[in-house]
């Protein structure tokens, strides 16, 4: 045989990304068409097509009811790739460093009462189990997402959850040094998480979330229901209670974490829009999953709020009631053009 | 800076294991994604990573590292640095990006599998960093070649290779899917992190970085050195996992997992790194031979690692050591001959000085591989380049998916017979290049038996028309993309008569 090489015309971007009119952004260059294994024939991965993990992906990803023709059309509104994510979070962590420095300089913890620390021992320290489950669920969503733009956003979300857990650990440790060693007892935290009745609705919800394996359901359950509902309590309500009890440091930390939660909601909303625009049945699929998970999520939020209600000083205005949480969630769903 | 050190609070973020009440443990950790080998949950909770880092430290460090690597890339992009690099070296880089960039991204999916299905919170946290790290490596190694698209159209393969059925892409995909994308969390910790990332990535990333700096490819050198600093962190998920398997009577299984993946990684990296180091890198810039790098980064490292854990050397260790003398030379000969089937331009690397270097580094090379290259060289010199191009295809191995090179193993005195190894399983015949590849298949046939090699597809009528041209199209190679000799055959014409004679060709 003979081969006649000829020069290929330089292209603006990857040949697999199709024709583009302008040079794509770094976000697009480092994400577009990376999931070559999605809907690949005869199976996603280069092993026996019937090997259990190929079957897992065929069932839970390719076989999910939530499908559109081309998931590559989804874009994270924040357009984060690794470089811009670590740069963003480097800035946010610099802000967090500044918050912590400021309170530590003022010896803030010395001003707090033992009864507030006792509230945190029950209501805050065990929350790391719950947030860790959110981290695990985000990592699952990432590995079954049908495009890299979805996978990456979910993986960043998992990183954000780990961030939230680490500052929780920091806060428990720093406050424990002011005279509440129980705050750093892992045995106590685990016992509370496993046995305190007020934690059980959240524990049940999150354990069940971990086995929601259909990718569409995993997304709807985690990002449209469980996380937005629990984050109202874990970030915002906790911040209000902390403030009422003189713990401005914890309040500021949780408000800092709320930035991450808002980013999760932005890409979730965009993904709903992509899904709904892409196929007729998708709105119903998403709504059905949201309906299936909502009531348990509200129960979990009730449990968490009842833990916060034991704080020495009640916040003004008062903690949200169940109907307020439902209202907030419905407003989020409405912004996603879901809900009744 | 916050007053508490990481060590004062970090353990709280590791103590997050609990017993499931509302669902079954097997539902949360299904065997397909997390094969715990029956070890009880509490045993897994002893998992203890040697290296710890906080999220805060992570984003502060990583943003700085990325800024540095990307600013070098931007500065070099404004120069004519790339155009001035040696053609053979560029081939090695094009091969590297195609075989490595998207797999690194796939490794982020592997890491997130461990981050979700790893059996201890401490492990899942480590894997969460690994998820982010590997996303970095996939993205930076696609971004950099993308900046070179206007200078080298073959850089498209950094992104395209895994979309195709090019044979090298099938081989790489088969290895990396087996190792991580389609692996369960526990096996992956041993096969990806313990076996692969502690040794073979050093070979490709530190070894190639050393050569890159000598060649003057600061862009690539800085890139892969920066990547290797991340590998060192998340690679440490293997050790604690291995300790738990060993403490719970799973030594034999652990040994099997490691032996399986060590061999597979060796074959692919003989193809990728072996050719780059011993043939594509310009002679004056070769810091060590591939074999020397292998001895330094693989043989020594693994022997120490195995000894430290009371593991045995893989049963095929002698064969492995022998293959370091001949296997990648056979692959080079084949890849150059079948050069239209690869996305890069293979560099023959056959100048007189290069042949002397090969004989020095691999005594006996002249009497074996050298003789075949004499024939090729003669054909090129006498204008018969067509005789150095393929009319058909070689068998490929049903495990490593690399062409079977047993005849070369036979001629060099390592195999009693030039014939490939055959296995009949459930009515189908499988071909293997070596005893270890055959053994990997037979250890878990269901995992591999349903898969078809490129040649199975060709013979089964999936490649149409069943000609070299039809196969090239099946492999995603347009005529402009097919590999050709990197130096335009200049190596065959010492003294510079090449141009004239080649025009006659």
Supply Rg of chain B. Answer: 23 Å
Question: Helix count of chain A?
Answer: 12
Strand content of chain B: under 5%
Quaternary status: heterodimer
- Briefly note the CATH topology name of chain A: Ribonucleotide Reductase, subunit A
Rg of chain A, please? 23 Å
Keywords (chain B): Monooxygenase, Oxidoreductase
Domain YHS (chain B): 420-451
Catalytic activity (chain B): propane + NADH + O2 + H(+) = propan-2-ol + NAD(+) + H2O
Enzyme class (chain B): oxidoreductase
Q: Which helices and strands appear, and what pairs or packs with what?
A:
The complex is a heterodimer of chains A (340) and B (505).
Chain A: H1 26-29, H2 52-62, H3 82-105, H4 114-123, H5 127-144, H6 148-176, H7 186-195, H8 200-210, H9 215-244, H10 248-278, H11 282-308, H12 322-335
Helix pairs in contact in A: 3-10, 5-6, 5-8, 5-9, 6-10, 8-9, 8-11, 9-10, 9-11, 9-12
Chain B: H1 6-9, H2 25-28, H3 41-44, H4 55-77, H5 87-117, H6 121-147, H7 157-160, H8 167-181, H9 185-215, H10 218-234, H11 238-247, H12 251-280, H13 290-308, H14 317-337, H15 352-361, H16 369-381, H17 406-411, E1 421-425, E2 428-432, H18 435-443, H19 445-449, H20 454-459, H21 468-474, H22 498-504
Antiparallel strand pairs in B: 1-2
What does this structure look like?
Chain A: It catalyses: propane + NADH + O2 + H(+) = propan-2-ol + NAD(+) + H2O. The complex is a heterodimer of chains A (340) and B (505). Chain A is an all-alpha fold. Chain A contains 12 helices and no strands. The radius of gyration of chain A is 23 Å and the shape is globular. The relative contact order of chain A is 0.12. Mean pLDDT of chain A is 95; it is low at 2-6. With 505 residues, chain B is mainly alpha-helical. Chain B has a domain at 61-312: Ribonucleotide Reductase, subunit A (Orthogonal Bundle). Chain B is 60% helix and 2% strand. In chain B, strands 1-2 form a two-stranded antiparallel sheet. In chain B, β1 and β2 (428-432) form a beta hairpin. The radius of gyration of chain B is 23 Å and the shape is globular. The model of chain B is unreliable at 499-505 (pLDDT under 50). At the A-B interface, α2, α3, α5, α6 and α7 of A face α4, α5, α6, α8 and α19 of B.
